[in-house]
Amino acid sequence: MTRIHAPRRIRHLPAHGALPTLRAVNTDTSDPPPAAASTERCLFLTVNGQSAAHTVPAHTTLAQLLRERLHLTGTKVACDQAACGACTVLLDGQAVFACHTLAAQCDGADVRTIEGLAAADGTLHPLQQAFIDHDALQCGFCTPGMLMALHAALQGARERAEVPDRDALAHAIAGNLCRCGAYPHILEAALDVAGRR
Amino acid sequence: MTPFRLLDAASTREAAALLRTHAPHARPIAAGGDLLGLLKEGVAGSTLPTPQVLVNLASVRELARIEVDAAAWRIGAMVTLAQLARTDGLPPMICEAVARIASPQLRARTTLGGNLLQRPRCLYFRHPDIVCFKKGGSICAALGGPARAHPGALFAGRCRAGHPSDLAPVLIALDAHAQIVSSHATRTLPLAELYRGAADNATSEVQLRDDELVAALIVPGRPCAQAFEKVAPRAANEFAWTGAAVALQCDGATIRSARVAASGLAPEPHAFDVRHLAGCSVHELRPSELACALVPLEPDDDVLAARVAAARLAIERALARALRCAGALHNPRSDEPPT
Amino acid sequence: MSQAAADPQAPQPLPRWDAAAALAVVGQPHARASALAKVTGRAAYASDAMPPGMLYAALVRATIARGRVVAFDATRACRLDGVHAVLGPFDLAWPGIAVRGRRLRPVIDADVRFVGEEIGVVVADSDAVARVAARAVDVRYETARACLTIEAARNADAPAIAGTAAPHNVVGGVQQIAHGDLAAAERASDVVIDAHYSTAAQHHNCLEPHGCVAQWTGEGLTLWDSNQGGHLIREALAATLELPRERVRVVGHHTGGGFGSKIFVKPYHVIAALAARQLQRPVRLFMARREEFVASHQRAPTRRHIRLGATQAGRLTFIDEHITGQAGPCPLFAINAAGAANGLRLHRADALHARIERVLTNTQSPLPFRGPMVAEDIFCLEQAVDELAWALAIDPLQLRLRNLAEVDALSGLPYAGKQLARCYELGARAFGWRASPVRAAIAGGRARGSGVGALAYDATLYEPSVATLACTAQGRIVLRLGVADIGTGADTVFAQIAAEALGVPLARIDTHWGDTADTPRSIDASNHSRTCAVLGPSVRAAAQALKAALLDAAAQALQADASQLMLHDNRVACRADPARAVALAALVHAHGPIERSAARERAPEGVFAAMFGAHFVEVEVNLRSGHVRVLRAMCAHDAGRILNPRLAASQVHGGFVQGLAMALQEERVLDERSGMQLNAAMWAYRTPSIADAPASIRFIDAGAPDGGNSLGVKGLGEPPLIGAGAAIANAIHHAIGVRLRHYPITPDKVLAALRGRAA
Fold it and tell me: Given Cys at both, which of A6, A64, A194, C87 links C91, Cβ 3.0 to 4.6 Å?
């Protein structure tokens, strides 16, 4: 197929710093995108103990699948750029950014979200209770991701028979931004729980 | 993101073959730590086309193996940073660098290959509405831009972005080789060679053909005094201004060979020429003087001056620690306290 | 927002809760009411709303800084699977947002005044398709010359930005504040500081982006919205769409961050509503992170020329500021560009003068950001005061103590309450403040120093406010408030006030907020640290009214006089014999719903209400890299009566961290050729992580119940940010002996200053 490049007229900005900055010219005017069916993938996922098969567009992120397919909206998408941590979930026991993980690459995985942190009978996880007791939150948007990141860290430490100190806990949430600035209380809550083990 | 097809492969060769079949519309995807960011924002251009097919390297199990023999480590490109951190016996500099990269969540999934092959973090490159040299423009868009948007490279070419990978200088300092696999051939070359010409390369920072994959990194197992130090705008979760890696092979107190490389200073991971250090005694060397000599720039611009200071600091710290590691009898002179 | 100082229609205040009042619920560190929902992921934010049939919208935004759209070609965009509509400037008669009887620019328009301005919208089946389609719209522009900085706009040959005749784009002329004889004060000065300062733009970067979900049911619109107050959004949207208020319902239970950015109706509200009406489907329009930097707007960059003088004995003679703020393209929002009043009222001086110029530019309008105009002012002014102290060889704390204003100079009124002296005293003691020379603590390439900075913030922004309390058939007390939960504790503290006034346990009270359909109008929006002062008195009044009603209703059942009765847990009981009681549920069963609303009490006349504080900070400067680390901060605040010390501490932590970020990290990096913001990404725009926060931030309650209202409360939302910057900058000076007058104080500036000193 002949590729036709539609030339975009280039707008030159007046001379205040010489160099024109151009809007990105998308010269990809070739075939239309492939048929929908072939851009889909199937995967099998266990989320908070419940297993199911899903068919999704290949570009679907784990966060989108959790929120839009499974209606588990506790996992938040804030930056969608793997930079803020609000979307943190556990994937096969590790804290990951659900916004930056293709669902199709999670076939067979075990996922735990904030909705699965408390016990089945509703008993709060010690971290959740500690967050309430220490007021380790304000607007709450970062809270699910913050809790899951700390949960993963405490679980990991327990497996290694370690007791995380303040530095280790801060390291565990280095990728979780709290714009409200609840950090002091968050660390207090985490230390409280870590110290009990 | 523009919809794409995600194709699995059972082997590295098959993955490479898929790249070849669907060229030039195909790209490999590891964890997507870098690629997904570009796709989500629509960062594209004539030399950075939006792919229609992604070849899923996560499906190629052999790429995620770590093997070791008497001579060397063979680390598959799909080994995650978290796995690297958990692997006993690796050259310690690798774990030092990993601990300072990104966040725990990204380290859990992103890979060695992904880290080595990531694209620049220059703010012009990453802006979807700006065309720069690396996206098909004729010149660097950052040229003439505000100092505070400086893309980083102190040793620049047509591209002026500093290379963002911290593991690249580490592996270059360790004299690692990259094993590159295509649909019908395999080649191995020193890692630094892979990045040759990055400054003038309009499509990439590496010399890889459309159907080639970095399959593994071969890291010599011989012990050496080594250290990695990173200076960044903030304390955590940050791309380096400079990530400096130093490796010294010594006979007693005499340096037999030295390798020093750094991220953030050039469009390719920058390997310094330190051949003159061979034959020197570890006691003679002054890290702060050496660092100044390696970055002999005195820019007028304050932002660049701060980057020079950061580069010298990272190099000096890494040198100091490596020299201490080499069993110096007394501390080499450094006005920086041990980190 | 009104500034009704004294509304003769408002009811008289109730008797004051004075310092001696023994309060059982107010003042206790009760857990945040919404905490359980937030830690379990059940808290509902607007971005979680997904009504059936919902479509996704993405905005098309201008990529030039000034000019006109001459062609909007949707051909490629429409070819994508799943696209329902592509609407540009020529497709609909887009209305402008109604503001105070005028209309702003049509929400989608061909006229472009800054990079990122809205020029179109795409609606599709999924977010991914909508965004790809938005990028696939082919737009052609006619570009005009843009002014991207204050300097460019003030140039003699700069084009007029707002089409008005404002010379050199200074809107509204030069605003003057003049108090006292400046010339005489200058003559009386022994030492004069004369210096230039600047502050940078600061983006809110809330974790939950701006956005809403719009759904029409017949003629009625429901909007799930991330905002700081649903009632203002509702009214402004109704006015814009020319609908009766009753047909617009705004729902917003929890908002993932606001900080001043989510007060007003913005183009996306209107666009989502119109797209939803056009397509007869619910439409979700939320910002992607890059465009969030456009949608949030920002704190304005400012430049200041500050002069101040004092006698050798340390008596302040004059403060004279010349301020220029970057005002954006719309004169209506230019007010947000700069201010000086709160800085001028902070210390006593013989003459207080300011000249303020707001310069129009082709950058998005400034909007409030926590401590708007005040933080910029005090960050700089408190450094100048510090400079004065060092020039006089007087301890910076002593200089401030010698210049406490008894009376508010600008209004001429005594303060309703002022505990600034106590802030200095308690803060200094807790910090261990000692006078010491600069550069006295340098070792191993690092320098430590300490600094102090004070703050004042007017508490004068009031409005009529209604709160409703009702007793339910289950015997529970429901407090209805037209307010948002932006993380400050509105979900908790008002229930505490109600519980206190009723005399029942806190657990008896449920607070209901966040839906304009079933809440009274309690406030425009939570801003200016005033929510407690505005709502608190109406809640207390409503509680008194409900209590009276319940006692009256029970008087019959118990055959007693209401004056002999009291509320006791979930019953009304006789004081003399609590066993004689009737359940609240029974009362409702007998009488029907029992509900009372009350309006906010009249604000006091003849006094000026203001918040005060003093921060004491220790920093460490890395002399090799220029990095600054804040080691610890003592934040002493006069916020009147503290309703909940645990939540108050959270506010102080949060405000301080944002102030630290404004002082040391945050700025807009703009390509001045194209007007594009280069660092509009979460990974590039540096907001603090745990690694940037100090190891210790302590809130010191130095306040006392204030005379501004019958509860004695003031505010604590913004002061902790306002006080942070200068204290940090002053500490840096103490550490390294150089002044960093241009915020943010990034490593390159520190190193440059050190080189300058060495030279």
Answer: C87
Cβ–Cβ under 8 Å, residues C719 and C371:
yes
Residue ranges covered by each domain of chain B = 61-220, 225-330
In tens, the pLDDT along C678-690 reads: 999 999 998 999 9
Exposure string over C624-647, b if 16+ CB within 10 A, otherwise e: bbbbbbbebbbbbbbbbbbbbebb
DSSP C508: G
Same domain, C645 and C707: yes
A39, A177, B26, B38, B267 from B210: Cα distances, Å: 22, 38, 8, 18, 20
With b meaning 16 or more CB within 10 Å and e meaning fewer, what string describes C653-668?
bbbbbbbbbbbbbbbb
A182 and C673 within 8 Å at the Cβ level: the answer is no
3-state secondary structure of C728: helix
Q: Over the stretch C596-634, which tens digit does the pLDDT of each residue have?
A: 999 888 888 999 999 999 999 999 999 999 999 999 999
Contact B305 C755 (CB under 8 A): yes
Query: Comparing C-alpha atoms, which of B66, C684, C46 is closest to residue A81?
Result: C684
pLDDT value of residue B339: 40
Give the strands of the sheet with C581-583, arranged side by side.
Answer: C565-568, C571-574, C581-583
Q: Is the peptide bond before C744 cis (omega within 30 degrees of 0)?
A: yes
Q: Are C641 and C713 in contact (CB under 8 A)?
A: yes
C-alpha distance from A124 to closest chain B C-alpha (Å): 24
Cite the beta strand spans of C667-717 per DSSP E.
Answer: 696-701
Residues 6+ apart with CB under 8 A from B191: B116, B168, B171, B172, B176, B177, B178, B217
Nearest to C63 among A23, A170, A185 (CB): A23
Say whether both C655 and C749 belong to one domain.
yes
Name which CATH class applies to B61-220: alpha beta
* Mean per-residue pLDDT, C108-116: 98
- Give the C-alpha separation, B2 to C127, whole Å: 11
> Structural domain of residue C711, as residue ranges?
373-460+606-754
Using alpha carbons only, give the angle B251, B254, B255 rounded to the nearest 5 degrees: 85
Reply yes or no: is the peptide bond before residue C505 cis, omega within 30 of 0.
Answer: no
Pairing of strands C696-701, C628-638: parallel
Average pLDDT over residues C442-460: 97
pLDDT band, very low/low/confident/very high, at A9 (cuts 50, 70, 90): very low
Domain count, chain C: 2
Is residue C471 predicted with pLDDT exceeding 80?
Answer: yes
Q: Is B94 exposed, middle or buried (0-12, 13-18, 19+ CB in 10 A)?
A: buried
Q: Where are the beta strands (DSSP E) in C31-169?
A: 55-61, 67-73, 83-87, 96-99, 102-106, 111-112, 118-124, 138-143
Residues in chain B: 339
Distance CA C61, CA C122 (A): 11
Q: What CA–CA distance (Å, rounded) separates A189 from B240?
A: 31
Residue at which a domain ends, from C543, C577, C598: C598
Number of H helices, E strands in chain C: 19, 31
A79: closest CA of chain B, how far (Å): 11
Orientation of helix C724-736 relative to helix C374-392, angle to 10°: 30
> Do C706 and C580 belong together in one domain?
no
pTM of the model: 0.95
Q: Which of C671, C748, C751 comes nearest B149 by C-beta?
A: C671
pLDDT of residue C603: 87
- Burial of B34-53, coded b for 16+ CB within 10 Å and e otherwise, reads bbbbbbbbbbbbbbbbbbbb
Residues C631 and C707 occupy one common structural domain: yes
The answer to whether A131 contacts C152, with C-beta atoms less than 8 Å apart, is: no
Q: Answer whether A36 sits within 8 Å of B58, measured CB to CB.
A: no
